[in-house]
């Protein structure tokens, strides 16, 4: 049975994706706003922030962890793709946040290529922003392949959201 949080997220994303947002490119990933340690671009989509010392924001680091726990098996290490799944660090250059989230949550078939739905996978759904942020950072070269060496500490807002999402039924 689908968890209520995953169902709510999937419904919200699908409703948003059904609007004209599907044709809209992701835009400039430059962070213009920060709330509780999470960064947003001019369109309001989640994005990364890399400090002058090379430290990545917590959400980018979390995205690295989630990507390598769930996505790299098919999509290759560091978003580079494989013989049967595309390079996600290239896909996020074409897909805006809503499209990306819709595909991860709802799945997609493109010819013989099938992306399974991850709506019931809390390690994907609870961290959808983080996955997108990490892949955006890779796609622009803001972070290099591999584990980021420095990171900001986890914000309290992250810890609360994580606990709430993981506890949801």
Automatic annotation (TrEMBL):
Gene3D superfamilies: Cytochrome c-like domain (1.10.760.10)
Compositional bias segments (type: Basic and acidic residues): 147-163
Matching SUPFAM superfamilies: Cytochrome c (SSF46626)
Keyword Signal: yes
Species name: Methylocystis iwaonis
NCBIfam families: 4cys_cytochr
Keywords: Heme, Iron, Metal-binding, Signal
Residue ranges of domain Cytochrome c in the record: 52-139
Annotated protein name in UniProt: C-type cytochrome, methanol metabolism-related
Signal peptide: 1-23
Annotated spans, Disordered: 143-169
């Amino acid at each position: 049975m689908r968890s209520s949080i995953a169902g709510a997220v999937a419904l919200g994303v699908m409703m948003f994706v059904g609007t004209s947002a599907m044709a809209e490119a992701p835009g400039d990933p430059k962070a213009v706003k920060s709330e509780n340690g999470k960064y947003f671009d001019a369109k309001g989509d989640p994005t990364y922030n890399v400090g002058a010392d090379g430290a990545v924001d917590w959400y980018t680091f979390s995205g690295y962890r989630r990507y390598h726990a769930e996505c790299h098996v098919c999509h290759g290490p560091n978003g580079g793709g494989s013989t049967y799944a595309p390079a996600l660090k290239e896909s996020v250059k074409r897909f805006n946040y809503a499209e990306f989230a819709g595909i991860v949550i709802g799945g997609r078939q493109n010819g013989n290529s099938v992306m399974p739905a991850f709506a019931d996978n809390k390690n994907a759904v609870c961290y959808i922003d983080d996955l997108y942020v990490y892949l955006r950072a890779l796609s622009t070269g803001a972070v290099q392949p591999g584990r980021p060496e420095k990171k900001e500490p986890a914000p309290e807002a992250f810890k609360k959201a994580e606990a709430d999402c993981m506890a949801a039924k």
